[in-house]
Request: fold
Amino acid sequence: MAGVLRAGPAAAGGAEETLMEATFDDRDGFIWFDGQLVPWRDARVHVLTHAMHYASAVFEGQRAYDGEVFALQQHSERLVRSAELLGFSIPYSVEAINAACRETLSANGMRDAYLRPIAWRGSEQMGVAAQRSKIHLAIACWEWGAYFGEEALLKGLRLDIASWRRPAPYTAPTASKAAGLYMICTLSKHRAADRGFDDALMLDWRGQVAEATGANIFFIRNGEIHTPTPDCFLDGITRKTVIALARTRGVNVIERAIWPEELESFEQCFLTGSAAEVTPVGSIGPWSFEVGALTRQLMQDYAAHVRGNRARG
Reply:
């Protein structure tokens, strides 16, 4: 199997890698592709696929724990909604998508894994218009440990401040997990890595705190949790899960507009996401945070929750 030597921030999310790792197009295993499992290397699309030229694709990121995909129903429902916001319908029901995710996990013999369902417009029509394009669905899974690396879980991430901003909801379908919305995330993450950071904090079009490049953000002050209102970025499934866990412990969670000038007043900070899970932040630009007790408690609570509620998928 061909491989590449990865050094420096890895494509998986910034963890340092020095071992040989297979590229994502050259692996053993199976990918669920338009209704059937195909060998990994055979899951290919044409170069004139509409999604490649016009970003007409939506996707999900989800994790399996102990052989079950956490919050699978919610992920599949969001995938269908995301496609509808981009003006197309996935030709599979939510129940069929759930079954396909489970089939993919089983076919690859994995129990703890990351899954990537993606739906897109095909190559039947080229140009901005794509009404005649076929809609495709594929699901892949692979083993993926700590998204930012194990050291980040101990010391916290170092975040740069992105120059790109999340768009207003009247300029883009911001409630969709759409491929095109991640272009500025890639640009921001690359710039952060070039400057020696793990990731970047993104502001929104108003200048308010929004999120990291692929995860929601939370702050802690005086035992209370503050998090930006998700009015122009995804209200993440992990975000909602962690809010519920905190409130179960009696912690007050406040969703509101947060301005960068407030960051110096917060004591702790952490990110949430299906890939990131719950990851502490040690600094954002000039502001520093402790990896404190409440952050660590929520990390533990989330880890226990995703492995103890298998029936939810």
User: Anything to note?
Assistant: The two ends are 34 Å apart (CA to CA).
